[in-house]
Write a structure and sequence with these properties.
Radius of gyration: 43 Å
Shape: globular
Largest sheet: 36 strands, mixed
Strand content: 15-25%
Number of strands: 73
Helix content: 10-25%
Amino acid sequence: MQPLMVYPFHFNFFKLTSGLPLKAGGGWGCNKRSLINERVMLIGFLLCMGVIPCYLCLDGRGGSKVGGSCIQNERKALLAIGADIYDPGEWLSSWTGQDCCQWRGVGCDNTSGHVVKLDLKYPYGFHDYGYGFYGAPVYETGKFPQPSKVNPSISSLIYLRYLDLSMNNFSGVPIPEFIGSLMHLEYLNLSNACFGGPIPRQIGNLSSLHHLSLQANAFFYDERHWNFEACPIALHADDLQWLSQISSLRYLDLSAVDLSKASNWLHEINMHPSLLVLKLSGTGLPGIPSTLQHVNFTSLTMLDLSFNDFQSVIVPHWVLNISSLVQLDLSSCNIHGRLSVAADMLGNLNRLKYLDFSGNQITGDISQSLWNNKHMEFLDLSGNNIIGHTQQMLGNLSQLRHFSLSGNQISGEIPESLGNLSHLEYLCLSYNRISGEIQKSMGNLLNLEELDLSSNQMTGSIPEEILGNHSQLRRLSLGSNQISGEIPKNLRGPSHLKSLDLSYNRISGEIPETIGNLLNLETLYLSDNTITGQIPRNMSNLCNLQWLDLSNNNFAGEITSLIEGFSECINNNKLDGGSILKSLILMVMNNNNFTGTIPESLGQLSMLADLDLSSNFFVGYLTEEHFSNLTKLDHLYLSYNTLKLNLSDGWIPSFNATDIAMCSCHVGPKFPAWLRTQTHLQSLCLSEAGISDKIPSWLWYRDMVYLNVSHNCMEGPIPSSLGSRTYELLDLSSNCFFGPVPNLKADYMILSNNSFSGPIPSSFSDEYMEPILLSLSHNHINGSIPHFLCNLTSLEVLDLSNNELIGGFPNCWSNSQPGNHDVLKNRRIKDTNSTVAYPMNLQSLHVRNNSLSGKFPSFLRLCKQLVVLDLGENRFSGNIPTWIGQSLSSLRVLRLRSNFFDSNIPMQISGLSSLQVLDLACNNFSGNLPSSFGNFTAMAELQEGRKQMLSDNDTASYYQESVLISAKRLELDYTTVLLLVTSIDLSQNNLFGEIPNEVTNLHGLYFLNLSGNHFIGKIPQNIGDMRQLESLDLSMNDLSGQIPQTMLALNYLSLLNLSHNNLSGRIPSKNQFQTFNDPSIYIGNHDLCGQPLPDCPANAPPHQEDDPHQEDEEVDRDNHDIIWICASSALGFILGFWSFVGTLMIKKDIRISYLRFIDRTYDWVYKELAIKFAMLKFVIGKSNHKHN
């Protein structure tokens, strides 16, 4: 019988049971009892006939079943709901056919057929390892959820007991109030669905609710693009009173919901004695009460209050009363106190298995009592200030599965007992001070899945056991240590390994061939080691590899087979109908010795987002085929190779990159037109690219932060209407640009080596965009230095050298009192009497070769960080201020050459303990040379170049310090080796008196020039102690006496000039003096004799080197040396001979091999000689025959 056949009975039934006549007043009729009896009898009859059971198969509100057990009205509602849910794949493809109970995510009651379960959780791409930054869900490439809607038809599913809409994107709309009408709901999950606004109070109507998850998310995190998509409105609740109506609640998750105004949160939650799980992570709770009068939720097993700024003691006392607690998470709560106190307090929680105190301010030693909990399975104390020795940790935690102490101050070596924790699955000790070697006993941790020992001070090699025994290991991070040796060759054990990080160590050798066995490997970081050799061919078998970093090593060979292998992986996946999401995303191989060409198959790596092949030895052409399918390419670095782009004029790349660097690649001669298609471009480097063209106008209107087109032949003026353009770096140096200095703004602006003219523009004075680096050198800039220089408080480097500037430096304090200069500490100080502003962060100032004048700049007294000061080749005058030694204690280069400075050199200048280069030549300085010149600390020791000139790493990377130094009769620009140079040049002044003997204390000095002064007396006797001297010029003075014998110790001396003095005696003739064959270096000393000057007369007093006693001593020393050489040679011959002969006598196989070798050698020599003699005989015979 068809169900529809019971419709007449259905309606008659309702007439019979509801059609009782009523009185006008609403009461029952007079025959009420008899009518009721009749109706009861009729109902019993219908039950017997089976009519009521048929009714039970129908919708209680008039709906009917369709197909199997699906109810028609509910099916229509489901279709409307599904139409508003974003589905990028085949998630809802099963929602066809009549039986909706068979649809994916739909569950029906077995008896009534009503829909009781609806699971629409977004299923795509969400990583099972959790969340990214700020708690944002992490989605894989191509699986990012687009907006969905909550269809009101959900309210018609009134029998729902289970509803899950989590992980969708509802674009910040409020949680619909009609959800509160689903009175049968027991499970409600709206977490991470981008709902916004207040939580509706109607949720409190769901009195049957056992599970409530409203976890909010401020962002969705897209793994492919490394960016966030924000939810427009945050989810919040000003109070939690509505919770009191849900008395049966067992699971409550309000994580990331804004509860900052919910001051009653603990009181409301405490009213739920059945609560088992409470998650309030990142809710901005206004505080955490330390006490609670009565704890009701004593059944609680899990408490998560992480990521709240409590600023309180470690554990609130009321938590200790929850004896049932199994999991406690108080991470990142800004709680403080000593670890030992917390450990003692937690001793009452006997069931505790999970404890997370990470990211707080916990201090003190590793507490021994913490290690006595034998039930502990999860312990995270990372990101605190815990100290102690590794031997103190772990104790009796035999059940431990997860352990992290990273980001503390733990020292010592890893104990061997660590290998006894057989249940350990996760171990993280990174960012500590752990030293020593990796214990082989860690190979016993057979259940270990993740091991992170990175950023410590560990030494030794990687034990074979680590990569040989751990078949379950999925992640191994040993980066940023001092580990040496080679990568273990046995890589067959960790077949499940997904991530291997050995970067920033001292690993050498080659990558083992067994790397090809790690077929599940997704991440491989080997950067910043000294690994050599070629990349193994089978490494291209790693088809799951997504992140590859081999940068900063000594790899060699070609990469053709590697790239072709990766591209073949993609092609095979396509043929098999598989996903290509697990293909290479990042490939960084810069700063190696790779050679050869880049294969065209590179263009098949369709998922590649980051490619860095810079600073290698690649050659050849790059064609359109190289980039054909790189649709996701975002960062392209090919700089510093010998590559040439061969692209058609109309080429349109398939990618839209953010960063492109092709420095030193041949891109020109025209500016590449295809760059116009890169609308996302933020960084572009085309330095040394062979471009002889103008910069296209469209480039100036892109929102770029980094533009480097230096060292080309680009020409033309820069547009003047670019005042709103701002850059992080703008480098137009070494081109042919002309016209006014461009009106641009940048943190780091380099416009040097062009033909810009006119004054320095006022746009550089923008207080919202002050330059950090400003280089305008080698142009035709004129006018004076503007006063706004004083306001550039962020300025670190100013280079105005080789221009046409006039005037002096601006007065950075006007009407200020000199006595107040030492107390000027603020950025700008203003009062009623003075106004002071100065470039307080200035580290390097170059104004060489202009026409500037005036006194020594007084504002420099406040520039405490100044390292390089070059005022050379100008018209400055006056004296060097006495405050220089105290105020500029960081100064390493002081160059005042070719000015009009006068007066004495102040003795306070010796306070410049860091000074390496002092050039005061060609001025009018007079007086004695201070004896304190021997106190220059940096010149008294060898410079190893460990400390860069400029303290800011960014500035140092964009600007290379260059100082012109006169030495060895040359003027050279010192750049990269400037860190190693030490020099003093006081030539061409009016200094007099004797050369202080203290100058010879400068044992690390390379260049010394005191020529063209009026020094008298003798050359200091201890000058031989200055053993690093390479250039010494004492010419054109009034020095007298002999050349000191100690100068024979100056073995590095390559230039010497002693001319035009009053020196006398014999010129030394040994060591370096044998190379000084030019007579001009001694000319003008009438009493000097000996090579290369005329020989000394017979009655000339002998030089110390001609002393016969000394010659006898030297002969004796030579005889002793000969004896030692002979004895050593004899001993070496005896040891070598008997080692060889002894081996032959003892080792039979070696003896046989050696004799066979001798025999084969004899046969070969005999054969060759026989052939040669035979040929010679033949030739001689033939010649004789011809003559006859």
